[in-house]
Specification:
Layout lengths: L1 E3 L9 E7 L2 E9 L8 H9 L2 H4 L3 H11 L4 E7 L20 H14 L11 E9 L7 H19 L10 E9 L17 H4 L2 E4 L3 H6 L2 E8 L4 E11 L1 H40 L11 H20 L4 H21 L19 H23 L14 E5 L9 E7 L2 E10 L5 E2 L9 E2 L1 E6 L19 H15 L9 E10 L4 H15 L9 E8 L28 E4 L3 H6 L2 E7 L4 E8 L6 H25 L16 E5 L6 H5 L4 H10 L2 E4 L5 E5 L2 H14 L8 E9 L3 E7 L6 E7 L6 H6 L4 E10 L6 E5 L4 E2 L6 H8 L12 E2 L3
Parallel strand pairs: 4-5, 15-16, 26-28
Antiparallel strand pairs: 1-2, 2-3, 3-5, 6-7, 6-8, 8-9, 9-20, 10-11, 11-12, 12-16, 13-14, 17-18, 17-19, 19-20, 21-23, 21-30, 22-23, 24-25, 24-27, 25-26, 27-28, 27-29
Helix pairs in contact: 3-10, 4-5, 4-12, 5-8, 8-15, 9-10, 9-11, 10-11, 12-13
């Protein structure tokens, strides 16, 4: 992996081009310190414009206050179609809305870099990663992460004084594990016995798409120079926690050279920046950090009241109202009072006003510190649970009518509630992807996660139910990865799983994974087993600001020199615990092992031993969840024995190769007629069989019956009413139909086979004649008839187009006894 600066996008604050083979990714970082606020007064103007602040609705204003405590960092990713030598297939022939892959990569970059930003960082910063060239072998996401970290470092040391410590560098690699080399061998070499070395699992750094497909573990690891993991994302096929820890250990060693390379680039640029600063002078900046005196007074005034709220408000709604009311009272107190208690270590001069933003941020830190103290002193969480206690869980299957929905399940965990609905469709309904960066261009199984505003008792825009937001895309992908490992390898359906969050109180993505597995089982899919998901979070040991530059992990003031909360793990996080905690580790798996994971940290990374502890804790919770699910939702412990009757079906019918022409008809008109008649899709396979794709079970049965009737061939001794198509010197060509809707057959009625010479002399085209089959050629399928009754004019004239088609028909080969079989 090579880095290049100073060649492309020279006007951007920081720009880096990362190369790996023929894959090139340009990452630019633009920081605008000139647009950043220089005081809390400017932030007050922004906050007061929020509708909730104008109406004094402090409960809704909490979101705006929390946003002010978040660094203004935007990340966008774009994979150009030209990177693969393609033209977009959209109407305007240009890239449109961000694809699912672009959103997932952008979120991964954000999670990797946001924890490294300093506390109080309020300079608007935008990172854009563009895939300029892609060889289709290597996923460009890790290149984008490494380029973004370098570009952010360049922008930071160019925009801010040199004495301000820049964000620590991070680097990313992808690691995969091949169980053996068998999956990658060509068919011609499969017969060769594999050596012992080839049978051993093999770890691959930066694997290709083919290697990732054949692997049982695919992981993106983002690490730091001190051996911590700051972001983790991947999927697996039910692997053990020890395997994941080993993957992290190998990946941690692989990021070291990348970090050294980044540091060299920044060191060269730092020397040039120092020369410019000596001429232009030092630059100043503003950090949105409340003053220490204000923090101390806010804690003295409302710390105990916040602790009382978190100690005795298990209900989310009740707790939210109480926190909003106390926040409003404390902010008003801090703004209106100047003569604070003498117990404060310091006080503010009367001339220094306290704005609503500074006061709100101070109260937010007091609220977080109060939550931490309650957890420390009581060893109980806000809802009364122990740290390792899971919320009460309920699971139900077939919650929607089975005659309309293929599969449905409802999972409730505490106040969180998710409804999952599985829908099966034809293979043509697979999701199409613009995989310009490489990989498959279709996806047979996909999850749509929906987070409507009512799940939090909030108002939303009218398009909130169908607008695709980044958070929904990310949570849906996490649930999809968790479930992908349990799907059967021979799955032919296109499967859409809709995960609707009906109520949100934390861990909705993990509830979606559990509900999704039950919905798939209710739909009759033979999955490997149900999936459990859990969020592991908690509090890590307090670290100094130098070790942890993130605003989220910096404590307001030391509470206890002997903090017993070091590395305290919390199981099944609430939304409040996710926001105030130091990390959120989402882990999903089956009874056999882990299938998906995603790490989001607010601290400056986790050590490998902390990751191992979280994984082991999650596995214990998985087993408890799965035991409950199998007992409460699926008493038999197995999926529905067959697909629901209204689900799409696939059938097959064996047909002789000689009869393919009879089924197709001239120009394929006959097979199109059968498709219109049955409502099914009929496809001829290379092995001679006929595949039928029916919308439901009844349609498949009717289609098979219709097809068998249509392909039924006459046998010797059968009698039919036919029509004369053509009169020749030696006889007449007669057309018969074995049954209504069947394919019409033609045969020869020799002049000697007429009942009399008089009948032969007056036969004409279009006459009706009753015949008996006297001969069937087993090789060619040609027929010979004998007349049973005198001819008569046809009562229904032949359709002109049909007559033309029949005259153009040719005899086809014979068919033996036709057997049918249906596969579901």
């Amino acid at each position: 992996m090579d880095f290049e600066t100073g060649r492309l996008a020279r006007l951007a604050t920081g720009s880096v081009t990362v190369h790996a083979g023929s894959t090139h990714v340009l990452v630019t970082c633009v920081a605008a310190p000139q647009r950043a606020p220089d005081s809390f007064a400017q932030l007050d103007a922004t906050l007061l414009m929020h509708p909730a602040m104008q109406t004094a609705d402090w409960r809704r204003a909490q979101e705006a206050i929390q946003n002010l405590n978040t660094a203004p960092l935007w990340v966008d990713v774009r994979e150009h179609a030209s990177a693969r030598g393609l033209i977009p297939t959209s109407y305007h022939r240009r890239e449109s809305a961000p694809t699912e892959k672009e959103v997932i990569t952008a979120r991964l970059i954000d999670r990797a870099l946001r924890p490294t930003l300093p506390r109080g960082y309020c300079t608007e910063t935008q990172l854009i990663a563009e895939v300029l060239s892609a060889d289709g072998q290597l996923d460009p996401d890790t290149l984008a992460i490494n380029g973004a970290a370098t570009a952010l470092g360049l922008a930071f040391q160019r925009c801010f004084p040199m004495e301000i410590q820049r964000p620590p560098l991070v680097a990313a690699v992808r690691i995969a594990r091949l169980a053996s080399t068998e999956a990658l061998q060509a068919p011609s070499t499969m017969a060769k016995p594999m050596s012992l070395q080839e049978q051993q699992p093999r770890w691959i750094i930066q694997p290709s798409h083919a290697e990732r497909q054949a692997s049982d573990l695919d992981l993106v690891f983002v690490g730091t120079s001190d051996g911590r993991c700051i972001a983790l994302e991947g999927e697996a096929k039910a692997v053990a926690p020890a395997d994941l820890v080993e993957a992290c250990r190998l990946a941690n060693a692989a990021v070291a050279p990348l970090l050294e390379h980044q540091e060299q680039i920044l060191q060269r640029d730092r020397e040039q920046v120092s020369k410019r600063d000596s001429i232009t002078g030092a630059r100043s900046t503003f950090w949105a950090v409340p003053r220490q005196a204000l923090l101390e007074e806010a804690f003295r005034h409302s710390g105990e009241r916040f602790e009382a709220i978190y100690a005795d408000a298990p209900d989310k709604t009740e707790r939210g109202i109480a926190v909003a009311q106390e926040t409003a009272r404390t902010v008003a107190y801090l703004q209106q009072n100047r003569n604070w208690s003498s117990s404060s270590a310091t006080s503010l001069p009367d001339t220094e006003a306290v704005g609503v933003t500074e006061a709100s941020l101070a109260v937010l830190q007091v609220s977080r510190q109060a939550w931490r103290r309650v957890l420390q002193q009581r060893q109980r969480r806000v809802d009364g649970r122990l740290p390792d206690e899971m919320r009460q869980m309920e699971a139900h299957v077939q919650v929607l009518p089975a005659d309309t929905c293929h599969g449905s399940a409802l999972v409730s965990r505490g106040e969180t509630q998710v409804l999952a609905v599985a829908t099966l469709g034809f293979p043509s309904l697979a999701k199409r992807l613009d995989a310009y960066g490489g990989g498959s261009d279709t996806k047979q199984f996909y999850v749509h996660y929906q987070f409507p505003p009512y799940c939090n008792n909030q108002l939303g825009r009218s398009d909130a139910l169908y607008r695709r937001r980044r958070r929904e895309v990310g949570h849906g992908m996490l649930a999809e990865r968790a479930l992908r490992a349990v799907l059967p390898n021979d799955l032919w359906h296109a499967v859409r799983l809709e995960a609707n969050v009906l109520a949100s109180a934390g861990s909705t993505s993990m509830a979606a994974a559990a509900a999704g597995s039950l919905a798939l089982m209710d739909a009759g899919l033979p999955i490997a087993g149900p999936v459990a998901g859990i969020s592991i979070g908690g509090l890590l040991a307090n670290v100094s600001s130098a070790e942890c530059p993130s605003s989220a992990c910096s404590t307001m003031m030391p509470l206890n020199e002997k903090d017993p909360l070091a590395d305290l793990l919390l199981v099944d996080l609430l939304g409040l615990e996710d926001f105030f905690g130091d990390f959120d580790f989402k882990i999903a798996g089956t009874e056999q092992g882990i299938t998906a994971m995603q790490l989001d940290v607010k601290q400056y990374g986790l050590r490998l031993d902390q990751i191992a502890n979280a994984l082991e804790k999650a596995r214990a919770v998985h087993r408890a969840q799965l035991e409950y699910v199998l007992r409460a939702a699926l008493p038999a412990g197995v999926a529905r024995p067959c697909l629901p009757s209204q689900a799409p079906r696939r059938g097959s019918w064996n047909i002789a190769l000689a009869d393919r022409g009879r089924l197709l008809g001239v120009g394929g008109h006959r097979i199109r007629e059968l498709e219109q008649q049955t409502g099914c899709t009929i496809q001829l396979e290379e092995n001679g069989s006929v595949s039928l794709w029916a919308p439901n079970e009844q349609a498949l049965e009717q289609a098979l019956e219709t097809l068998q009737q249509a392909m039924r061939r006459p046998t010797c001794g059968d009698e039919y009413a036919g029509r004369v198509l053509q009169v020749l010197d030696f006889g007449a060509i007669v057309e018969i139909q074995t049954s209504p809707g069947s394919i019409r057959e033609q045969g020869l009625l020799h002049r000697s086979a007429f009942v009399s010479s008089a009948e032969w002399s007056r036969v004409q085209v279009g006459d009706s004649v009753t015949v008996r089959v006297t001969q069937v050629d087993q090789r060619t399928g040609s027929l010979r008839f004998a007349q049973l009754a005198s001819t008569a004019p046809a009562t229904v004239p032949l359709d002109e187009n049909e007559n033309n088609n029949n005259n153009n028909k040719s005899s086809t080969g014979s068919q033996g006894d036709c057997g049918s079989s249906t596969t579901l």
